[in-house]
Amino acid sequence: MLEVEKTMQEAKKASLYLHRIPHSPPKNLGPYYSAEVVFSSQEEANQAFDNVDGDIVEEKMGLSQKMVEFKMMSSGSVSRLYIRKNVQDSEVSAKKRSNTEEIKVSSKRQKRENDAEEIREESVNHCSSRESKCENHIKEIEELKENHRKEIEELKENHIKETEELKEKLKAKEREFERICENHLTEELKEKLKAKDREVEAQDKMISNLKKKLKKK
Fold it and tell me: Does residue 34 contact residue 110 with C-beta atoms inside 8 Å?
């Protein structure tokens, strides 16, 4: 039993855990899957991990992992996955378990932890996607509000402009009417003055004729 456990422990040390690997194309099983890459030794696995470009960060179980970005061949979009060690860097040989059942329990627990990590990451990705959609929706609403405000301002400006134009036209009509009235009154006065002049002339003639008649008597 101890030999079996030792073999499994060594195999675990000589492997890397790849997770959040995107399906291409997406499948009904979910957007991501995971895989174990087994090397011939722990040194080879560590060397492969060191050769991967990226910053080393510790996940919640204290295991080192790196994020790798790459371009999808099918869509050309940039995607990412995570490469994680299966043992801690400072891990020493742990106390050997006494029976195969404990080995199975450990393996199941590791699987549950891996599954839980996958679910958590998918949940974070889903929330991020939902937040992004909400932000885009809010942005569209703000743009519509701004466009509506601009349209209202433009309508107000056009209305004010049209009102001012109507006022100017009305003033022009009033000035034209005043000129017509002035011209009409002037002509009417002239005619009246002419009539008065004729009336005065007629009276002068009458007076002159009366004077002549009086002189003859």
Answer: no
Question: Has residue 34 been placed in a domain?
Answer: yes
Report pLDDT for 34.
92
| Spatial contact of 165 and 159, defined as CB atoms under 8 Å apart | no
Domain that holds residue 16: 2-98
Indicate the SS3 state at residue 95. Answer: coil
If 0-12 CB within 10 Å is exposed, 13-18 middle and 19+ buried, where does residue 21 land?
middle
| 47 vs 40: CA distance, rounded Å | 12
Count of domains forming the chain: 1
Q: How far apart are alpha carbons 109 and 103 in whole angstroms?
A: 10
Whether the Cβ atoms of residue 66 and residue 56 lie closer than 8 Å to each other: yes
Domain contains 29:
yes
129/121 Cα distance (integer angstroms): 12
Residue 85 exposed, middle or buried by CB count within 10 Å (0-12, 13-18, 19+): buried
CA distance 213 to 10: 164
Is residue 12 in a domain?
yes
CB 18 within 8 A of CB 82: yes
So what's the pLDDT on residue 93?
Answer: 41
What contacts 216, CB < 8 A, 6 or more positions away? none
Residue count of the chain, please give it.
217
In a domain, 122, yes or no: no
Q: What is the percentage of the chain residues whose pLDDT exceeds 70?
A: 86
* Residue labelled with tokens 């509506």: 148
86 close to 17: Cβ distance less than 8 angstroms: yes
